Amino acid sequence: MSVAFPDRLMPGLPYPLGASSDGLGVNFAVFSAHATRMDLCLFDPSGKRELKRIALPECTDEVWHGYLPGAAPGLVYGFRAHGPYEPNKGHRFNPNKLLLDPYAKRLVGQVRWTDALYGYRLHSPRADLSFDRRDSAAAMPKAMVTEDAFVWEHDRLPQVPWNKTVIYEAHVKGISRLREDLLPHERGTFAALADPAFIDHLLRLGVTTLELMPVHAFLQDSFLVERGLHNYWGYSTLSYFAPEPGYLSMGDPNELRMAVRRLHSAGIEVILDVVYNHTSCGSELGPTLSFRGLDNASYFRLLPGQERYHINDTGCGNTLNLSHPRVLQMVLDSLRYWAQSFHIDGFRFDLGSTLGREPHGFDPGSGFFDALLQDPVLSRLKLISEPWDIGPGGYQLGNHPARFGEWNDKFRDDMRKFWKGDEAMRGAFAQRMMGSAELFEHHRRKPWASINFIASHDGFTLRDLVSYNGKHNEANGENNNDGHNDNASYNWGAEGDTDDAAILAKRACVQRAMLASTLLAQGTPMLLAGDEFHRSQGGNNNAYCQDNEISWVNWDQARSPEGAALSAFVGRVTAIRRDFEVLRASYFLHGSQMVADGLPDVAWFDEAARPVSSEDWNNPVARAITLQLAGKPQESHKQLSSRLHDAGQSDSPAEAAEATPDVLMIFVNAGHEAIDFHFPRTEGDYHLLLDTAQDTGIPTGEDVRLVLPGSATVQVPAHSLQVFANRPLHLASAIYPLAANEWIARNEWGERP
Length: 753
Description:
single chain; Immunoglobulin-like; 23% helix
């Protein structure tokens, strides 16, 4: 049935940007400072046939707008922008190219690579100074008018305090693509994130916050398609408002909303990894998909005096111009949309240094940071930056605004080197365990600002870190030239897979030591999905294009004895972290505050219980150290002590618990031989809480073992650490408050755990 559209649009309004339905029609608004005309193109529901082309009748404050009466959600559309094609001046208008609405909230179709997508004639001797007159509509995805409708009435953001946060970085597709217990169409989609088995797994690990790699609709880049590969990671954004269609099992964006609500009901936050530093269209030689054709000179940073060329601080061909108020508005509108329409709890900003760039360079007081931190919605969420890019002065670790957490690659590198056995790393290990105060202790920042990780999506998995001396990226088709060369990895006797039991045992021991260091250090720990059960990528440390078993998480490993043991180990360490507040202090510890007479908040000793001298810190061969932490017990422990006392199960009243500070001893041995450690303090009994030489971290025989003052020496095996405390682990308060599946019933009607 044909649809009758008018020849002219009503004027409409310049705000909000994008396509907005009011029940009687649809308002269209799109920014372009330099266009001379803007056409709205209407398509059939499949997006294959253009039905009508109508000029937007008004332009107000550089926003083109018009109102289409009778239109409704489901309408498929795109834009064509008229204006000068003068690349040397930064203008690349070409009305032959259909353009995706930057505010599109749902896409129809996908990019089909043809020469017609380019604004210039490919292979022309004049390169991008030439002009291409072919229509690109058949090769372009289109936008669909949407109506966001979802019942959030009983949803509450978990609002996990920063110092209690444990992050789990995962890929939407990779985390469930191999889950045979799911329906086939749900595997690798948002629907799988709402599965109770997955949520229970996160709860058992002690995870509080799920960080998802990019979920914005992204482009399958031509250079990958030509090689038979795929853009797996998704760091090539096509639309900042639309969920990636490939992650929708039934095509309904509400699948993501349902997943977020289910995770919230279990007390788990959802953070999105977002890419506002560049777009998918590449350099000035890239295709014309949206921003380039709408207003290249406004949306992108161009070389001053050579506006034909893009500034490439991102390594991806272009850099968004967040100094322009309309570009900044688009980014903030996008963030607010995900926060309000999808109830997202926070954002991790890819190449965050780019977002803080002004014409003079990186500035923590940039327009983007200032606008973000004053926003009444966004400023209350968790904000994390990847604090570097490849531009001049791009490495800005520790220099972001105080509201931000920052990925700490110094933690990653120093911990890897320390546990690998590199020389002169004892001092660096101590700095990282204390939250990298030399980087973050300014402007009233807290230790949680340091996002501590051993492995992330970019680089080796934890298992590969102890299995390969070098990268093995041959499958990427770049002759193994891509990816980092310096990984601070060590294979411990064999490159890759091996049947040698001794090598496997040593690898597992080092893995547990690195996981424990990450989870026990001051700051915010982050785990990479699958690291808790030995996930391997076969030595590939740059699997951005591997949409296959190389990248997908194999849950059979989680069910193996070795995988189950390592997952139990992670749960044990996170329980200790929750139970002892001093492991997540609200201020940087320097040993200057006394918790009790003669008991500072932190102290460092060698294995003989001697304070570490300045010379000892620089001892190149010393690989053993003792960390003593002290702090007041948290309020929940006093309440537990009081309940036990009232029930006749304890002789110690709550007052005694309050009077006795928590004391933790962490004995660390990164050497190749077992070492005897002496206790710096021998008052009272000590309980062995964690032994990384054991598969699950639980001491052999029983949960706790008393070490009496008369035997104040303990042997710590090579490549391991042990944690002692002056009280046992209060499991009643340390285990996650919700048992398996209990969260489904308890929170569906607004109750909180």
